[in-house]
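Sample entry (379 residues):
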Amino acid sequence: MSLSLPSCLFVRLFRRPTLTTSRKCSTQSVLTREVGKNAVVTLNRPKVLNSMNVDLQRNVYKTLMDLQNKKSLIVLKGAGDRAFSSGGDLVLLKKAALTKDWVYVNDMGFYLNANLHLLRNYKIPIITFMNGITMGAGAGYSVSCRFRVATDKTKFAMPEVKVGFLPNASASYFFNRTIGQLGFYLALTGSTITGTDVLRAGFATHYCNQSDLPTLEEELLQCSCDKNINAVLDKFCQKDIPELTLQPVMDKINKCFSEPTVESIFAKLKDDGSPWARDTLNIMEKYSPSSLKVILKQLQKGKSMSWLECLHMEYNLTVNFYKFKDTYEGTRIVLQDKNDTPKWDPPNLIDVTEELIEKHFEPNSQEVFNKFLNEIKSS
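Predicted structure, serialized as tokens:
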């Protein structure tokens, strides 16, 4: 069953907000430390795992725009030792949805994509410390940067399937550019990979111990060029990396998650019968049938798409997911009633028709999205 959204949302979803209304780091959600020609930018909401609200994302945008023509290098990190960022703040997003605050939803969407584009096309090197929880939009931010340092405490995931949503923040692109079908497995199970596995999978470019980050940061701040950056990273980062923890089951992952439908993935897992396959099936059977089918189609489409095309597809998907009940239901379970059983609509895979899947991919104002891209490119 679909939900009605105000028509103004589709017109305004990716309008460019008025930047002048923002106070400069008024809530200290983003901290900046400048050292000569270099700087450290810190996501500063440690009590909520540096989750992203509009204020944080707006201040990231303003800060990075200001620094890229003044500095030679940026270190991007999260405050505290627990997280780079856990992604979008679900509490605030749910509140916005319940109160029909589409301006907030609009601004979250705009700044997410603006920052992804800015990070990916930044004029100077950004070194991201993927320390601790690096999930959702936090994962999207990190993989968009040139240098990405994972640690022994890194926990990397796109867990949106658990709340009846989709992995966005360019996941359609980067999940198609990892080992075999690992990206499909991670997207459809919401599983977390840690430590050296983040490097092995290609989401990080370097790996070091968390305890080395303070010294690494200080030495990076003395760098003057890419050659120096690589030398410093090589000094601190380990090269002797163990094989992927999932390597013993990669053949199974490749076999099962290369199937064309969710039903055939389930069938392969049942036929396999191994403890890993049984556990994986048990996990996936709890998720929204609609979300599973749409995510699989999303990743299949993303295989042949450019980064910008993936971003556009995810824009349409994000808008359209909020027309249906499962994202609200999944968020309710995560935030309020963790012991309750979700009531997905439709409840079974067989009831999720191809027509329903395609409704999630319907375009939402091509003109607005093109304006959004043009504004970012010219900024």
